């Protein structure tokens, strides 16, 4: 479905020179100029701490929660502010039961931020880790999705996976997976880092328990920030740390000496300590506002339209490309044809100032709204050269 008001290239909103072909947002998204400017203002304000008000510890935090909630279709009060995906996943692992002999389902080669906490939980509780392997195919999407559903059995306690695979953009049907998880009583923990901001994800449709996204990729924000939506299983629970700002009445600085065990409303109890980061949070707030203003559906459509010619030519040259139904538009892998010299490919990309990533056996391409047809044409030329076309 096409939007009524499609996007045009927004390169002028970023500091991306015309001769840099940065097709690597999955590695790190560049800050929009508005976010950069917010960061400069925030740094200057820290030089005059006498201008900081108690309300400043809360207002930007609340704005960030609201922006993220709007993007994922949830409530702001259900959003916690974290420094990383691994922090959010550790919070989930601390609060989700995984009895001895139950199954914790993961994907093969999923990003480790959503892996290591489950390794620890399985070791400590006696649960079994079940890793669903990638099917041996250049188009594994359909079979891989089916294998995930088959792995979610009656004794599954947790399903922890991404929306799309970070190495090649394989899409997983979270609505179907969420329905299967609820059917067996399993928790569903989603790392949306490589999708939220460029691919629609709505918590009311998927009905997961946790959705986290790092801020520095498709949300175009700063490093060391992440936002986490937490479902009803987390209405009561134990945070990783006992921050003062997470307590009821923490807005009254004079009354902070009157200790209380009561947490503030919503999921604020799970916030990282010093969550009111005066250097990073204003940058994240501006970046989220920018993404929300463009519209995630429009961003997805822009990437789809931009990369169509690239995918057609890549198939002609013998690169493996996932079927449309199971391939993200903003992040996808091109599987190498037999005999291709990876060293030659790296040299060819570098010579043309093309920035992409090699992840496993895939050339990972991840455009965003600052890319244009010249960026795609440069990559096509490089692929033609190394494929001998």
How would you sum up this structure in a few lines?
This protein is of the alpha/beta class. Helices cover 35% and strands 13% of the residues.
Structure description:
The chain has helices at residues 33-46, 56-72, 85-95, 116-125, 141-151, 174-184, 203-206, 281-294, 296-316, 342-351, 373-387, and strands spanning 21-22, 79-82, 103-107, 128-132, 156-162, 187-191, 210-214, 226-230, 332-335, 354-355, 357-359, 362-365. By secondary structure, the protein is an alpha/beta fold. The longest helix is centred in the last third of the chain and has 21 residues, at 296-316. Strand 5, helix 6 and strand 6 form a beta-alpha-beta unit. It starts with 20 loop residues before the first strand and ends with a helix. The protein has eleven helices and twelve strands.
Sequence-ordered SSE layout with sheet pairings:
Elements: E1 21-22, H1 33-46, H2 56-72, E2 79-82, H3 85-95, E3 103-107, H4 116-125, E4 128-132, H5 141-151, E5 156-162, H6 174-184, E6 187-191, H7 203-206, E7 210-214, E8 226-230, H8 281-294, H9 296-316, E9 332-335, H10 342-351, E10 354-355, E11 357-359, E12 362-365, H11 373-387
Helix pairs in contact: 1-8, 2-8, 3-4, 9-11, 10-11
CATH class of the largest domain: Alpha Beta
Main sheet record:
7 strands, mixed
Distance between the termini: 34 Å
Spatial strand sequence of the major β-sheet:
2-8-7-6-5-3-4
Q: Classify the fold: give the CATH topology of the largest domain.
A: Aspartate Aminotransferase, domain 2
Tell me the CATH architecture of the largest domain: 3-Layer(aba) Sandwich
Individual helix count: 11
Radius of gyration: 22 Å
Helix % is: 25-40%
């Amino acid at each position: 479905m096409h939007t009524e008001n499609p996007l045009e290239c927004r390169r002028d909103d970023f500091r991306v020179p015309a001769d840099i072909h940065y097709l690597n947002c999955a590695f790190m998204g560049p800050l929009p100029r508005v976010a950069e400017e917010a960061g400069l203002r925030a740094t200057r304000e820290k030089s005059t701490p006498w201008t900081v008000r108690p309300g400043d510890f809360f207002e930007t935090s609340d704005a960030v929660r609201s922006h993220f909630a709007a993007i994922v279709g949830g409530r702001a009060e259900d959003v916690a502010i974290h420094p990383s995906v691994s922090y959010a996943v550790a919070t989930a692992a601390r609060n989700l039961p995984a009895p001895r002999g139950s199954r914790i389902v993961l994907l093969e080669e999923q990003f480790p931020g959503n892996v290591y906490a489950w390794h620890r939980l399985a070791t400590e509780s006696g649960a079994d880790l079940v890793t669903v392997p990638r099917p041996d195919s250049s188009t594994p999407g359909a079979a891989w999705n089916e294998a995930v559903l088959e792995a979610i059995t009656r004794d599954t306690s947790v399903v922890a996976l991404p929306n799309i695979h970070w190495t090649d953009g394989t899409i997983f049907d979270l609505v179907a997976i969420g329905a299967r998880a609820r059917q067996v009583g399993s928790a569903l923990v989603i790392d949306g880092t490589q999708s939220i901001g460029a691919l629609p994800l709505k918590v009311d449709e998927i009905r997961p328990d946790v959705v986290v996204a790092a801020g520095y990729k498709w949300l175009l924000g700063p490093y060391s920030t992440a936002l986490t939506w937490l479902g009803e299983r987390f209405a009561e629970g134990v945070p990783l740390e006992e921050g003062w700002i997470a307590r009821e009445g923490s807005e009254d600085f004079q009354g902070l000496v009157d200790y209380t065990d009561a947490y503030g409303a919503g999921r604020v109890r799970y916030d990282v300590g010093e969550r009111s980061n005066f250097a990073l949070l204003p940058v994240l707030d501006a970046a989220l506002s920018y993404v929300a203003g463009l519209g995630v559906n429009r961003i997805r459509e822009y990437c789809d339209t931009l990369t169509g010619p690239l995918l057609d030519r890549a198939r002609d040259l013998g690169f493996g490309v996932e079927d449309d139904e199971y391939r993200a538009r903003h992040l996808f892998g091109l599987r190498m044809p037999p005999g291709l010299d990876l060293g030659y490919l790296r040299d060819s990309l570098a010579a043309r100032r093309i920035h992409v990533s090699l992840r496993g056996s895939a050339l990972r391409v991840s455009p965003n709204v600052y890319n244009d047809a010249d960026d795609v044409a440069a990559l096509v030329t490089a692929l033609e050269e190394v494929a001998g076309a």
